[in-house]
Amino acid sequence: MSDTTAHEEPELIQLLTPEGELTGHPDYPLEISADEVRALYRDLVLVRRVDSEAVSLQRQGELGLWASLLGQEAAQIGSARALTDRDMAFPSYREHGVAWCRGIEPKELLGMFRGVTNGGWDPYEHGLHLYTIVIGSQALHATGYAMGVQRDGAVGEDGSAVITYFGDGATSQGDTNEAFNFAAVNNAPVVFFCQNNQWAISEPLDRQSRAPIYRRAAGYGFPGMRVDGNDVLACLAVTRAALANAREGNGPTLVEAYTYRMGAHTTNDDPSRYRASAELDDWKAKDPILRLRRYLENHGLADDTFFTSVDEEADRIGEQVRTECRALPDPEPLEIFDEVYAEPNVHIDKQRSEFAEYLASFEGAGAEGGR
Ligand SMILES: Cc1ncc(C[n+]2csc(CCOP(=O)(O)OP(=O)(O)O)c2C)c(N)n1
Ligand SMILES: [Mg+2]
């Protein structure tokens, strides 16, 4: 018995080769000006800098944890730059590039990882839901939200679409598969954007799926495609098409962005214990920033002055991230009770007053006692 689903070579949608050559793709034509390409390059470089500063801040004890996006910049910037202000995104916990594109200040992102906020931003103001740690749950939230958009009649060419981000590991979760099915049967305007970074902590891709992830969409009855996740132009073109499809009332799409987590899972992890360094070297050759830089240089679309100005801006942002992180105020201890429920709740009120009493018992024992 032959099993073509598992063994046929998958097609990878690519517009820009790792050498920086623009090949384009017949199904995903992309009209983009030189200014827009330079803006994408700037996004990629600045987001990588915010990320590397955050890793250093964790190492210096300023953050409790950080989940690095290193290597996934193009998947995030390309897809998020395809969104409009009317769209809503539901991220996981590594989507710092998406947050950047949705206008979240780096310090707002750092707050949660420093343990000083319960979330960090107003989801409606930015069109970005809060970070979600419960793997795959955001796919259901996004599907429900998309069904709400549908019921509000906020669809059509100028309407809203929804996108949700999750990883390869999340495709093994029931929540994600339920979301696929629910979105399909309800024709919900949602794009499932899977960043397949080849690893779910220490579990490699072949422990998650025998068939390529994007092919699962066929089983639920909607289109799926694999895009080169290190090619910012391909990610932009494919996500734009998927969002347009959702807006036009054609339901969900699964986009598998084939990429690589170049760093550790989080700052708590040591990948040298479970993966070979040769694998990382292979992916370094496909670096998303390098290939866009090569394209800009090869076509004379950017000169040294441009690259230097972006690097200088990155230095300024690095400095800003370090300063603002250290200046983030500690919350009042009792604030933790304020955002548990939207409505007053007797159980929470009881816990609040018990905790207030406990804190008061430290009075006179020094300011640190209550903290
Ligand atoms: C429901 C649930 N199960 C397990 C975990 C623990 N956990 C945290 S991250 C992770 C791996 C996720 O891998 P993937 O979906 O590929 O995302 P990536 O971290 O690679 O971006 C797991 C199992 C969790 N947070 N939530
Ligand atoms: Mg992963």
Automatic annotation (TrEMBL):
<dbReference type="InterPro" id="IPR029061">
    <property type="entry name" value="THDP-binding"/>
</dbReference>
<dbReference type="InterPro" id="IPR001017">
    <property type="entry name" value="DH_E1"/>
</dbReference>
<dbReference type="Pfam" id="PF00676">
    <property type="entry name" value="E1_dh"/>
</dbReference>
<dbReference type="InterPro" id="IPR017596">
    <property type="entry name" value="PdhA/BkdA"/>
</dbReference>
<dbReference type="GO" id="GO:0009083">
    <property type="term" value="P:branched-chain amino acid catabolic process"/>
</dbReference>
<feature type="domain" description="Dehydrogenase E1 component">
    <location>
        <begin position="44"/>
        <end position="317"/>
    </location>
</feature>
<keyword id="KW-0670">Pyruvate</keyword>
<keyword id="KW-0560">Oxidoreductase</keyword>
<dbReference type="InterPro" id="IPR050771">
    <property type="entry name" value="Alpha-ketoacid_DH_E1_comp"/>
</dbReference>
<dbReference type="GO" id="GO:0000287">
    <property type="term" value="F:magnesium ion binding"/>
</dbReference>
<keyword id="KW-0786">Thiamine pyrophosphate</keyword>
<protein>
    <submittedName>
        <fullName>Pyruvate dehydrogenase E1 component subunit alpha</fullName>
    </submittedName>
</protein>
<dbReference type="GO" id="GO:0016624">
    <property type="term" value="F:oxidoreductase activity, acting on the aldehyde or oxo group of donors, disulfide as acceptor"/>
</dbReference>
